Amino acid sequence: MALTAGTRLGPYEILAPIGAGGMGEVYRARDTKLDRQVAIKVLPPSFAQDPERLARFEREAKVLASLNHPNIAQIYGVEDRALVMELVEGQTLQGALPLEAALRYAGQIADALETAHEKNIIHRDLKPANIMVTPAGVVKVLDFGLAAVAQSSDPSNPANSPTLTISPTRAGMILGTAGYMSPEQARGKAVDKRADIWAFGVVLYEMLTGKQLFAGETVSDTLAQVLTKEPDWEQVPAKVWRLLEACLQKDPKQRLQAIGDWRFLLTDVQQLQVAAPSRSRLGWIAAMGLLAAVTAIAGIGWWRAARPMSHSLIRISTELVSVPGNANDYQLDDTIVGSGQPGTFLTISPDGTRLALQVFDPTAREFLLASRRLDESRFTPIPGTERPASPFFSPDGQWIAFLGNGKLRKIPAQGGAPVVLCSAENFASGAWGDDGNIIAALRAQGGLSRISSEGGTPAAVTELAEGETMHRWPQVLPGSDAVLFTAYTGGGPEDANIDALSFKTHQRKTLVRGGEMARYVAGQNGEGYLVYLHQSALLAVAFDPGKLAISGTAQPILDDVRAIGQTYRGDFDVSRSGTLVYLGGSGEPERWIFWLDPTGKTEPLHSAPGLYNGLEFSPDGKRLVFGMGDVLANEDLWIRDLERNTSVRLTSLGGVSTSPLWSPDGKYILFVHTPNNGIYRVRADGAGEPQRLAKVEGFPSSISPDGKRVAFATGNPFTAMQVSTAPLEGTAEHPLLGKVEPFLRASGFPMPAFSPDGRWLAYSSSETGTPEIYVQPYPGPGGKVAISSGGGGFPVWSPNTHQLFFIARRGIMVADYTATGDSFTPESPGHGHHIPYFSITAAALFSPMRWPPMANGSR
Fold first, then answer.
1. Which one of 233, 265, 297 terminates a domain?
2. Where is 707: in which H helix or E strand?
3. Which of 24, 265, 618, 729 is 20 to 30 A away from residue 194, measured at CA?
C-alpha cells in the first residue's frame, strides 16, 4: 500500500516516494528523534503478512545492521514492517567510464564485499541498480544481504524470491537481475561469496563498456548467455583482462576465491620484476619506504590480438627499498636498484634467459649493473660497471654493452674486465647487430651511429630530416639488414614516429606515427610483430621485416607501462624468443596505510590501497591527514577519523595539494599547493575555503610546538640547500607567513623537524657524500651533533619519549637521546625494523594515541 507524505511509521515521518524494487516501495523520511533524513523500504504484503518470514527477516536485519563500512548503505533497523536505512544521495552506477574511474569504483565495491564476506554475509543481488555513487564519488552498495534475508524457505516458489518483480502484471518474471546471476545461481544451486565475485566481474565489465554483458531478449535467453557466453575481451582494457577472467570463470572452483585479491590480478600482469623508481618530486614530499614487487616475465611470442595474454608467468617475489635521500633508488634483494643515469633501466638477453638491470652497491657506494638468469634466485652485481645506463645484450647473450662514466663499454654478462668501445658523453640508447656492429644514439641531438663491437671510431648511420631533433631507441633487425628507430621532431611522445632504414637500399620509411621504442618479435609460421609504445600502452602490429612493412591494425598488449622520467617513454625489452620484461604501471605505485609497532609488526589502519603521500597524525592522535592522488597531476588532502573509521576530502583546489602539517592545536592544516607554489591553510574540520599564506619556493616540513614558526627546505637538492624558517603571523581570520630566514646549509633532502620542546632541529644532509641525520640547537647558538652513521633520512621525533627515528637503508632506526640545558647527547642508533610490502611515510609513524606501546603489548 502506497504511503503519502505526512504518514508516520513510529518516529519516522514519510516525506516523498523514491521508487520501488523487488523488496518493496522506498520512501524518503525524516527521523523525528535524531532529526535526520532516512530511507524507508516498506515490505510487500506477501512478505510482511508471513509471520515466520517476517520474524526471520527481523533477525537477519540485525546481522546486516552490523555491517559498518563507508561503502555499504547502513541499515538502521526495522520499524512496523518497514526497513529503515541510510539515505544515499546520488545516482546509480552507470558506464561507460574511464579505466581510472571504473577501477576506483570497483575498489570501493570490492572493499564493501570483502567486509560483508568476512561476516559471512553475501549480497546475492549485486548489480548497478544496487550501487549508488554520491556527488563526492563515494560508492554505496544498497540492499546488502537482503536477497539472502528475504529468501523463502521454499526456493521453488518464485513469488517469494527477491529477484522477482512484485508488479502484478509481470509476476514471476526476473527483472534486472538475471544478467548478473552467477551460473550456479542461474541453475538454482546453493551459492556462496563466489556468486558476488561473479557479479562484481559483470558489473566491472559494464562499467568499462557501458553495455550489459549478458542481455538476451527474454530472461531465458539471458540465463542461457550466463551459462554459455564468453566475454568479448576486445571491449575492455588489457589491464583488467586477467581480473575479469578470474571473476567470470563459470566453475566457481576456478573463480577468484576472495574479492580482496582483485587488485593483485591487475598487478600480476602489469607490474613485473622490477618496480620502477619514481621520477617525480616525491623525493621532496614523501618519506622513503619499502615497496613490494612481484616479478613476472611474460612470453608473448605467440600473441594474438583477438584475446588477452593468457600466457604463463614466471614470478619471483622480492622487496624493494629506497636509498635514504634519493627517491629514485630502490633496493632489490641485498642491492639497490637505481636510476644512476638517464636512459633505459633493464634489458633481457636475446634467448630470454637472463635479465640485467641497474643496481646500487652500498659497499662501493656506486651504481652498477647486476644480472641473473631467470632460473636463479638472486641478482649478482657486475664489478666494473660503475654509473651505468641503457644496458643491452650482444646477440649471443654473452656480453652486455652500456654507458659508463661517459664511455660506451661492454663487459661479459657473468662478470669480467670491461672494454671501452668509444666516447659517449650523451649516449642514450643502443642495439647490437648480428654482424658485430652496434647502432647507438651517441648525441643529445642528432642521428644514429655505427660502432664496431670491438671498438673504434663511430660512423654516422642516419641523418636528421627537416624538422627532426634526434633519433633514439634503435633495434637492429635479425640479419643486420635494417634498423628500427624512433625519430623525434620535438622532445615528447606526441612528436615521435617509428622509422626503418634499410642498410642495403639506404631507403628510410615511416612505419608508425605517434609511436616509440619499437621492438621486433618473430611469430609463428613466419609471422612477425612490431611491439612499440604509444603513450603508456604497449601495442603490437603485424610486421614483415623483409619488406619493412606493417599490416593490419595495432592492438594493445599491455596498459600502463611505467614511464621513464616524466615522459610517456616506458622501460621494457623483448627477447627474440618472445619473452617480454617491463616496468609495469604508470606513475606512483599504490600503497597501504598500516600501524607499526616497535617490533616491526603491522596492523592495517586503512585497508584500501591508494596513492597516499604526506601522512601526518593530528596532535591528539585521533585523526590522520594524507594526500591521495597523482603527485604529477592531481592530488587532494583527506582527513581520516580514526575513531569513526571514516575519511573525507579536505581540499578540492585542482592541481596538487601536498605536504600537510597540523597546527599544534589541531584546528588547522598547512599545505603546499602547486603549480603556483603557494602555502595554504585550511580548517581541519573542512569549514571554509583554504587560505593562501604566501608563495614560497620549497616545502614546509615542520611547525614549531608553539605554532609560531615553520621550518622549510629550500634550494636545489643537487647543488645547495638551505634549512630555513618563517614566522606564522596575522590573525586567525587573515593569516600570513612572514619572511623566510635561512638557518643552516645542507645538501640532499634535509626535511627539517622541530623537537617536541622546540629547542632542537633535526635534519638530513649529504655533505659527506652519504645522507646522514644531524641535530642542531634552535635558534642557536651551538653546533650540530651527528646522529646516524651509515646513512639516514627523514627524521621524526617521538612525541612522548626521548627517541629520534629516521629511515635508513635497511629500515627504521631509532636513536635514544638525552637533552639537558644546551647539551644534546645521542646514544647509538638501535635496531632498524625491516617492514616489507608498503611505503613508510615518516611523518605518520607516531600517533600520541598509540605510542609508546602499552605494557600489555597493545599499541
1. 265
2. none
3. 24
